[in-house]
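Record 1 of the preview.
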Amino acid sequence: MLFNGYFAFSPAAWYDDMTVVNHLNTFLQVQTQSYYRPTLLYFTVDGAEHKLMLEAYNNLEQSLVSHTSNWLGWRSKVKHNDNPALSITGALMAYDEFIN
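->
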């Protein structure tokens, strides 16, 4: 595995009839033991995004809540204030906390 921290800002999880959400859900059900290195997923979306994007965000979050794992830590945040600098700072702070 190349990386152990992944950041997704306003992810297009809604695309293609929620394909990303569906694949994540399946992946988490099947692959819970395939990773040997702790990994962090940080994702954020603005609270003023289109309702489809917010629905996808909520579905991603629900998948992660439903399929807890010892190898996957995650953080999420709604309302990154349309400011990438704030999102990046939050992601880096979450990653720092994760590795320390």
